[in-house]
Specification:
The complex is a heterodimer of chains A (about 110) and B (about 110). Chain A has about 110 residues and is mainly beta. In chain A, about 0% of the residues lie in helices and about 50% in strands. Chain A has strands at about 1-5, 10-15, 20-25, 30-40, 45-50, 55-60, 60-65, 70-75, 85-95, 100-105, 105-110. In chain A, a hairpin with a 6-residue loop joins strand 4 and strand 5 (about 45-50). Chain A starts with a strand and ends with a strand. The relative contact order of chain A is 0.34. Chain B has about 110 residues and is mainly β. In chain B, about 0% of the residues lie in helices and about 50% in strands. In chain B, the strands form 2 sheets. In chain B, strands 2, 4, 5, 6, 9, 10 and 11 form a 7-stranded mixed sheet that branches. A 4-stranded antiparallel sheet of chain B has the order 1-3-8-7, with no helix packed on it. In chain B, a hairpin with a 2-residue loop joins strand 5 and strand 6 (about 55). Chain B is globular. Classes of the chains: A mainly beta (about 110), B mainly beta (about 110). The interface between A and B is medium-sized, with 26 and 28 residues.
C-alpha cells in the first residue's frame, strides 16, 4: 500500500466493487489523518479525516480505518463508481497546524467498466 | 459559492523571468499555504501565512517569494533563482482551528522553458 514517502502507483477495481486504498505512516506522534481525492488537472478535494482517538470513521460511501499499533491507515470506498477514478493520497499531522502536514505521494484508482 | 481561485490555470514563461501566481479565497480563512506538486511525490510546502501581513518559509522556499497584504489574497512569485520551476502549484487555506482540513484551489501548471 501507499506510504507517506513511498508510492504505490495504481489500483484497478471493477465498477460496483469495493476499493481499499492503504497508507502506512512512520511518525507515531501523528494524531490527525486526512484522505484527499485529486482528479486529473484539479486540486485535492477533502474526503474524510480521523483523529488518533478513533479507529474508524464513516462518511458517505467511504470509511477510514486507523490502526495505530502498526501505523496503518486505509480508505474504503463502497460500490466504486467511474467518478471515483482519481489519485487518492493520505496526509498525517503531528501538530496543531497545517504547517506540519506530511503528504503521501498517492495511489491512482482506476474504475473498470 | 465559497472557495479558492487560482489563476491562471496554465502559465508559460521563459527561463530567467519572474512570474506571479494568483490565489484568492472567499472562505474568510486566516491561514493560507502554497504547495508544489511534482509527479510521484507528495505535496511540498513552499510558504505559508497564518495571518495578514505575516508569512513564513516552508520546506522549499528558495527561489520563491510571497506577500499577504489582504486576508483574501496570497500571491506567489516564482523568481529566476528557482532552479527547477516547472511544476503544478497548489494554493490552500484553512480556518486555522485545531486540525481543520486544508481546502485547495485547482492549481496552476507552470512551464518554464
Amino acid at each position: 500500500g501507499e506510504s507517506v514517502g513511498l508510492h504505490l502507483p495504481t489500483l484497478s477495481v471493477q465498477e460496483g466493487d469495493n476499493s481499499i486504498i492503504n497508507c502506512a505512516y512512520s511518525n507515531s506522534a501523528s494524531d490527525y489523518f486526512i484522505w484527499y481525492k485529486q482528479e486529473s488537472g484539479k486540486g485535492p478535494q477533502f474526503i474524510i479525516d480521523i483523529r488518533s482517538n478513533m479507529d474508524k470513521r464513516q462518511g458517505q460511501r467511504v470509511t477510514v480505518l486507523l490502526n495505530k499499533t502498526v501505523k496503518h491507515l486505509s480508505l474504503q470506498i463502497a460500490a466504486t463508481q467511474p467518478g471515483d477514478s482519481a489519485v487518492y493520497f493520505c496526509a498525517e499531522n503531528e501538530g496543531d497546524s497545517a504547517r506540519q502536514l506530511t503528504f503521501g505521494s498517492g495511489t491512482q484508482l482506476t474504475v473498470l467498466p | 459559492d465559497g472557495g479558492i481561485t487560482q489563476s491562471p490555470k496554465y502559465l508559460f514563461r521563459k527561463e530567467g523571468q519572474n512570474v506571479t501566481l494568483s490565489c484568492e479565497q472567499n472562505l474568510n480563512h486566516d491561514a493560507m499555504y502554497w504547495y508544489r506538486q511534482d509527479p510521484g511525490q507528495g505535496l511540498r510546502l513552499i510558504y505559508y501565512s497564518q495571518i495578514v501581513n505575516d508569512f513564513q518559509k516552508g520546506d522549499i522556499a528558495e527561489g520563491y517569494s510571497v506577500s499577504r497584504e489582504k486576508k483574501e489574497s496570497f500571491p506567489l512569485t516564482v523568481t529566476s533563482a528557482q532552479k527547477n520551476p516547472t511544476a503544478f502549484y497548489l494554493c490552500a487555506s484553512t480556518s486555522g482551528d485545531h486540525n481543520s482540513p486544508l481546502h485547495f484551489g485547482n492549481g496552476t501548471r507552470l512551464t518554464v522553458t
